[in-house]
């Protein structure tokens, strides 16, 4: 079973509590620098607040979703039992301290919490009644992995590494699918190309070029050329060629303001559009 650690908290929450998945992706995207594709090293504090406590535990308790809260409490107990030393501070600060301000959740916690949660709550609140046992403690049960097929994950890694400007669109595509299905198990290379590239970065680059800014257009070819290096992506690109070509034609047709880009930038964007059309033929 995956071990909860400070630096591995994202993968841990993904594996043990599917309700966290869309919020993990959203948190990662919110911290992402769109230009560099760097998330700055998201901390366990941010993931516990933004993907576990607020949108899952508090929201589920407020709507009376007992099964989700019980599974989330089992996760809390597991993090206290098996988490590394670095994880204990963010767990205390972003989860246990937060509990005192959430009446609906605190009530369920008194019913379903395990011995370690009860011990820490008793110490934190100086209320010995927390040590009284509640109902049967749930055992943590791992759901499906929620991961994309191996070949699709490998293809996604190619795009992630080659094209930093594409990363926010990859995360958005994943977020949309997880919100629909709770999992990435049905993700395909085609969807990455259609939603992240043809429906994401390419229109964004076109809009910015319309204002005379070529920066996002400069991020297109690294993604497109990377697709040709992966058999899975290359095959998907052939299937999605029409959508990519249509967007490339729109990019080629953009006329930016006369006073903003220089001739070199105009030539560079024109060459980008031409190359996109070439590789989709």
Mean pLDDT: 94
* Count of DSSP H/I helices: 14
**Rough outline:** elongated
Proportion in helices? 55-70%
The biggest sheet, with number of strands, parallel, antiparallel or mixed sense and barrel status, is: none
Observed structural traits:
281 residues, mainly alpha, 2 domains, 14 helices, 0% strand, elongated
Describe this structure in words.
- The protein contains 14 helices and no strands.
- With 281 residues, it is mainly α.
- It folds into two domains: 9-131, no CATH class; 150-279.
- The chain is elongated and about 75 Å long.
- The mean pLDDT is 94.
List the helices and strands and how they pair.
Layout: H1 9-16, H2 21-31, H3 44-62, H4 66-82, H5 85-99, H6 103-112, H7 115-125, H8 150-162, H9 167-181, H10 189-210, H11 220-229, H12 231-239, H13 241-253, H14 263-279
Helix pairs in contact: 2-3, 2-9, 3-4, 3-5, 4-6, 8-11, 9-10, 10-13, 11-12, 13-14
């Amino acid at each position: 079973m995956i071990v909860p650690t400070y630096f591995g908290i994202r993968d841990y929450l993904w594996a043990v509590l599917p309700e966290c998945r869309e919020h993990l992706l959203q948190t990662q995207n919110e911290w992402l620098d769109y230009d560099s594709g760097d998330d700055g090293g998201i901390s366990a504090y941010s993931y516990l607040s933004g993907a576990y406590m607020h949108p899952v535990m508090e929201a589920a308790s407020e709507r009376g979703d007992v099964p989700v809260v019980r599974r989330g409490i089992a996760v809390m107990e597991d993090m206290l039992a098996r988490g590394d030393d670095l994880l204990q501070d963010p767990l205390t600060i972003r989860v246990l301290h937060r509990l005192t301000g959430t009446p609906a959740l605190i009530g369920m916690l008194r019913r379903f919490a395990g011995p370690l949660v009860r011990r820490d709550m008793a110490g934190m609140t100086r209320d010995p009644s927390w040590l009284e046992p509640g109902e049967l403690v749930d055992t943590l049960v791992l759901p499906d992995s929620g991961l994309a097929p191996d070949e699709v994950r490998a293809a996604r890694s190619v795009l992630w590494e080659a094209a930093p400007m594409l990363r926010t669109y990859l995360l958005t595509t994943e977020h949309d699918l997880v919100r629909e299905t709770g999992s990435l198990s049905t993700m395909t290379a085609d969807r990455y190309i259609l939603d992240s590239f043809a429906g994401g970065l390419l229109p964004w680059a076109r809009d910015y070029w319309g204002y005379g800014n070529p920066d996002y257009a400069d991020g297109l070819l690294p993604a497109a050329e990377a697709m040709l290096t992966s058999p899975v992506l290359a095959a998907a690109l052939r299937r999605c060629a029409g959508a990519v070509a249509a967007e490339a034609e729109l990019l080629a047709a953009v006329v930016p303001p006369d006073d903003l880009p220089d001739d070199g930038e105009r030539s560079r964007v024109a060459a980008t559009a031409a190359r996109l059309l070439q590789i989709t033929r």
